[in-house]
Design brief:
- By secondary structure, this protein is α+β, with helices and mostly antiparallel strands.
- The protein has helices at 19-32, 36-45, 52-86, 111-130, 137-143, 149-162, 196-199, 203-210, 220-227, 234-242, 268-271, and strands at 2-8, 11-17, 135-136, 165-169, 175-179, 218-219, 246-253, 258-266.
- α1 packs across α3 and α4 (111-130) packs across α6 (149-162).
- It starts with a strand and ends in a 16-residue tail after the last helix.
Length: 287
């Protein structure tokens, strides 16, 4: 045992330890760039209620374990690097870039879709002519007896969204409508049906579209459950319908002037939309 006296944190302290412990302490102090007294002062500052002699030995044990761990990691890394360099596989030959996909034909619509667009465009013109003076929805329906309630509501909503017709609130629940753009309607145009703006769907719309079965109609609530989105509503389906991706069936409620979405069916264009996921969960077919 070797006894040494040091000034530790302002006080005179005597330490009796084995020669090997003193040698290890001096070695660690040299590695850390400290003097022996500075290292003992650091150990004394963090020792708590333990004796200084025991704290020095515990510190040396922990420090040597850290050094051993660092050297082991460095050795493993060196072995890994040497093996990586030695057994590096030869570079693979450069593959030519794939040919670009064939350009999609522009403005190619099925004949049934073209007929539907022309019919709705004619109805839009009739609505605008009928709204040269302000009318309520009931008055507009009476002025156009040959148009179904569902079609009238859908075309009128598209005209309001396009800014060609203004919807004005009245007392109670009634609404009045007035034509703002007396010229030819800009909606339901065959060339706009496949515009780039409508090709790219938001993630929520794409998930709602992908939840529809490939064949048959599905209830709106089942589509909501299959897509995992509580925000799927009638408005969501009407937006998809305005893009020509789905067809909606409504149920009249109350007096028949109000309605709600009953079932939804994906169209041929929706089925071939690039964002329609065939593998996504599907809503069961109604009926």
């Amino acid at each position: 045992m070797i006894l040494r006296t040091l000034i530790v944190n302002g006080r005179r302290t005597s330490l009796r330890m084995e020669a090997e412990v003193w040698e290890a302490l001096e070695e660690i102090a040299g590695i850390e760039g400290r003097t022996l007294r500075d290292l003992v002062c650091l150990i004394d500052h963090d020792r708590g209620d333990a004796s200084l002699t025991d704290s020095v030995k515990v510190y040396l044990l922990r420090r040597y374990r850290e050094i051993l761990r660092e050297r082991s990691v460095a050795t493993l890394q060196m072995l890994h690097d040497s093996q990586h360099v030695q057994f590096l596989p030869p570079p693979s030959p450069v593959q030519p870039p794939p040919p670009p996909p064939p350009a999609k034909p522009e403005n190619v619509l099925p004949a049934s879709k073209k007929v539907r667009l022309r019919k709705r465009k004619n109805i839009a013109t009739e609505i605008k002519n009928a709204l040269r003076s302000s009318r309520s929805f009931v008055e507009l329906k009476d002025a156009m007896p040959g148009v179904s309630l569902t079609t009238l509501r859908g075309v009128l909503k598209c005209l309001v969204r396009a800014g060609e017709v203004t919807e004005q609130a009245r007392k109670g629940r009634s609404q009045t409508y007035v034509c703002e753009s007396p010229g030819p309607s800009i909606i339901f145009n065959e060339t706009e049906a496949l515009s780039p703006e409508t090709e790219e769907l938001s993630p929520n719309l794409a998930r709602a579209l992908s939840a529809l079965p490939a064949k048959g109609r599905a209830k709106l609530i089942e589509v909501r459950h299959a897509s995992g989105q509580s925000t799927v509503s009638a408005t969501t389906m009407e937006r998809l319908e305005s893009y020509g991706l789905v067809a909606i069936d409504y149920i009249a409620i109350g007096s028949g002037l109000d309605r709600r979405v009953d079932t939804v069916q994906i169209t041929e264009r929706g089925l071939h939309h690039p964002q329609y996921d065939q593998e996504a969960p599907k809503a069961p077919v109604a009926g």
